[in-house]
Amino acid sequence: MAENSGTDPAVETNTEENAAASATIIKVTVKTPKDKEEIAIAEDSSVSQFKEEISKRFKAKQDQLVLIFAGKILKDGDTLGQHGIKDGLTVHLVIKTAQKSSSGSSQTSASSGPGPSQGNTAGTANPSPAGNLGTPQGSGPSPTPTQPPNILAGFGDLSGLSNLGMGSANFMELQQQMQRQLMSNPEMLSQIMENPLVQSMMSNPDLMRQMIVANPQMQQLMERNPEISHMLNNPELMRQTMELARNPAMMQEMMRNQDRALSNLESIPGGYNALRRMYTDIQEPMFSAAREQFGNNPFSALGGNTDNSGVQPSRTENREPLPNPWGPPDASAATTTTASGTATTTSSTTSSTTPSVSNPLGISSSSLGNGMFNSPGMQSLMQQISENPQLMQNMLSAPYMRTMMQSLSQNPDINPPPSGPAPAPAPTPTPAAGTNTAQQQLMQQMLQMFAGGNALTQTPEVRFQQQLEQLSAMGFINREANLQALIATGGDINAAIERLLGSQPS
Amino acid sequence: MEQHDSTFGVQLFIYDLSRGMARQLSPIMLGKQLDGIWHTSIVVYGEEFFYGGAGISSCPPGGTMLGPPDTVVQLGNTEVTEEIFMDYLSSLGETTYSGDKYRLFEHNCNTFTNEVAQFLTGNKIPSYITDLPSEVLSTPFGQVLRPILDSIHIAPPGRNVISSQNNHS
């Protein structure tokens, strides 16, 4: 109890604290970058007393401590109450290293030797960075401080586009501009189409169909017009359509033929009415569905018009005996999950071309890759890709990427069961269960496509393994011919069989 | 009370990574309206600081590939000097905010910005930003996309990485 000399101050502090019992002890959390501790202190303590406690707990010298609360630095002479520090609040702490660099950089700490700050989680006696931050050391030679904001300026052709892109905040305008650019530069279109990624996407009929079907508006359409679902379900048709979409020249040819056929139809008595009827029944809902996706953007018509100039007139005659409308879906999803990580959004792009007879879904091949271009990250990525198709393949076939994709596509766990893996979002799964499954499948397909469709690098044999087996089980023993047929039909077994039968296998 | 130093203004730069596409497409894809995919950074002492797949980085304000921010929020003022701040950042970068700790959903640029904002000013960043991951994850599509997105690290080029031996400029 009573020791002599030390009593007084001790008693004093005791009484102070006892008196402070009325002022209470508060628990303040002290947070360092690495750590946090709760410290009990009297409410009316001064900052220096607080620091005393802290230095004990964190094993640092008092003058190394810098306390920050609400943006203010707590000075020794202040009290906690002055700053409004109450029970349960958090105060930030930075423990200064010995260095006295005035330039504000932690440069000099490097000279303070590689004090192993790794094992310093508790205590943080020397949190000053000595080791690396686990990141590439700042040899930032290229990003100079005087970097122009528009980095794409150096990229040549697309710089103009990027300026447009970055200047405009309006999505619609962007699209419109993109289309104009694309149309004024036909090479770009063919570049896009030649892009192996786009091509591989188009060569997978199932995927296309899934994507179309997954679109809620399409689903609505399909309910109203069963013919549409027929169209989609006919693999032959889909395949043809996709071939056409892939090949712009073929597309034009087709369109011309159709126009001619249509004008012939018109001349048949009663034919015109039939045409008109068909238009109102089928085409219009599709148009509006396609347009809806863009919030009825009037500009889409503008953009689409010039693109389908060859087809415009046919709109009035319209009608199209369903065969060979443009299958390629609205949602040509460019789920290019950018491995380079420049963009997070997996965006499904939709074309905004005015739907027309031979192009009922309003696909403008020029806008197939459209949405992808809208973020500068994507722009530069696409630029690089179109310049160097190999790059894309390399990117996708990077071992890490591949394995990830493959494991993703094979892993059934990825697709959340209807009940949803996350316990939290319970309400949504049920109503969305339908879409959910569709989406899951869609995702799976896409993943498979990515995984296996840098199977452009894989041999066809590997790709068509399953189909080959089926064919040989059916009795087509000529593996070579089977393979050829499969390649030609893109893996479609039925079509392959037709081919084989047609060519009289030995 | 005597002021230690002059105070420094602290700003929050907000970028929409989707450039408007999220606003357009989110109702279709996710079933709910998201106005953007937000990336944020703290601007103080005439520099922009942010966290990405490469760790904590800095650059001149608006100097990343993303260009100028979509929104700027004034977070307040701070007495913290640049020296102390750099110490603080270095510590952070060694521990909780090293590059490999980046997680698109749980521990991303906005997590960092939020923490730094509180350190500097005591204020948090607007909640619509920090709520974004959970908003996305609460949709079925978000859940499906999650494994892919988890592997994506946002690292806007055009920056210097802050490290102990770096003379960040």
Q: Count of helices of chain B?
A: 6
DSSP summary, beta strand count of chain B = 6
Radius of gyration of chain A: 34 Å
Give the CA-based shape of chain A. elongated
Portion of residues in helices of chain B? 25-40%
Kindly describe this structure.
- Chain B: Belongs to the DeSI family.
- Chain B: InterPro entries: PPPDE_dom, PPPDE_sf.
- Chain B: Its EC number is 3.1.2.22.
- The complex is a heterodimer of chains A (506) and B (169).
- Chain A is elongated.
- Chain A is built from 23 helices and 7 strands.
- Chain A has helices spanning 7-23, 47-58, 80-83, 158-167, 171-184, 186-194, 196-202, 205-214, 216-224, 226-233, 235-246, 248-267, 271-292, 298-307, 312-317, 376-387, 389-397, 399-410, 429-452, 460-463, 465-474, 479-489, 493-502; strands at residues 25-31, 36-42, 65-69, 72-73, 90-95, 331-334, 347-350.
- In chain A, the strands form 2 sheets. A 5-stranded mixed β-sheet of chain A has the order 2-1-5-3-4.
- Chain B has a 6-stranded antiparallel β-sheet with strand order 5-1-2-3-4-6, with helices on one face.
- Classes of the chains: A alpha+beta (506), B alpha+beta (169).
- Chains A and B meet through strand 3, strand 4, strand 5, helix 16 and helix 19 of A and helix 1, strand 4, strand 5, helix 2 and helix 3 of B.
